[in-house]
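User: For my dataset I need records formatted as: sequence, then structure tokens, nothing else. Please produce one.
Assistant:
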Amino acid sequence: MARAPQNRFSGPVTVFHERRLPEAATLAGYAALIDAYRLAVPIPATLSAIGTRHRRTEQQGWRIFGPRYAPEATLEGHLTFALKHEGLDLCALKRLFLSVGAAEVEALVRAEPTGRYARRIWFLYEWLTGARLNLPDATAGAYVTVLDAKLQFGVPAVNSSRHRVKNNLPGTPEFCPLVFRTAKIEEFIASNLAERARAVVADVPRDLLARTAAFLLLKDSKSSYVIEGEHPPQDRIQRWGRAIGEAGRRPLDLDELLRLQQIVIGDARFVHLGLRQEGGFVGEHDRDTGGPIPDHISARHEDLRSLINGMSEFDRAVSEHLDPVIGAAVLAFGFVFVHPFEDGNGRIHRYLIHHVLARRGFNPPGLVFPVSSAILNSIDQYRDVLEAYSTRVLPVVEWQPTPQGNVRVLNDTGDFYRSFDATPQTEFLFECVRKTIEEELPAETDYLRRYDEFKAGVEQIVDMPDQRIDLLFRMLRQNNGRLSQRARQREFEQLTANEAEAIEAAYARTFAGAAPP
């Protein structure tokens, strides 16, 4: 059993894990526990410390509390501080419990068997480790929620009579990422984006809406490939678009994920289909040695089935109790961080956004939001939220290169993927969904409406098949509303000068100030 001497918890510092504090201060909560017990875990995005001034400040990823908030320099003191002020970090808690051992947690609970924080710690120990402490069931103490819903998003609670707590954790021990309540997320939820989407399409004629839906579906499929740096033939783009259009109709399990991978990959001669059978990483290879230079290291292949089972259970029984966008962010980003396949992970990751939104009825009927297009337009921010996770995990993954240029993970990393702080990913996805509703959806319907008006104008000037009108339109669009001399002499040599000028005028009237969506 690893014990932390009391003096480990004392003394102000100016640097913690290469992160400068705004001022000399004493570590508190998770920072103190990680330091005292030498926990190899991803460092929380925001840490706490006790300063000398009687005011609370927040800067540079630190919350500096006044002296009156200082906890006792003990395991119980810092655990209680963490639960009270910092919310739950399930990965850090599990590694802490495994480090200190059962006896120390039992002693903590016996010292205050009715304490609200002691009972939460007791429950979390048994829930996270799967081990039962040598303690009798609680018989007193008002029921308290395990997760503080004022700090993080939870789900409807289920009583645990043994601990006299209400389990409102949004997941299972196999998969339970958490999202903090931030002003940005609360504002998005209050704006009721789903209702705004329905309002946008309410006055759109049914036939125009159907065409809009088809364009958006194709646009999303194409964008998802472009994000991966791929430009496949049109039939593969359309095939993946059809799969996206069916998102949410089937339960999510390993068989469904394998089906999706087959659709995404197409030609599988050089790709192993199915779960990885070795390590995985995202990054580059050294030009000289061929050795891996990872930006992100995926979950160990030994943990994949358990993680997929956890995601499947999250989708089946948990996500319906969260805001749809939060549920989509947790599931989709959780999947891409695990990276269970050799190839196809990114596109399936974005498919899972559609899966959750469609299953929850977030989209207007028959419409798929082009989330991948919004992501492509915000690609730098997208990379930032991926790196927000990877840069915290990479330092605590022990690995070595393989002769094949891959990575072999040497330590137990499963908990890093089971529970992580999905707040930045959730904020990003909310912004993408907002853009699709407020910008891309209206722009697409307006664009098609203008095209129909242009087409009708052309038909008033000259009889022309729809295919030729479409070619005419594309040439006008590519040449800023003018027919080039080449087009007049070749593709549309039959047009008279007056007809050509009238068509150009029709284009100018209908597309003045409009940019292609």
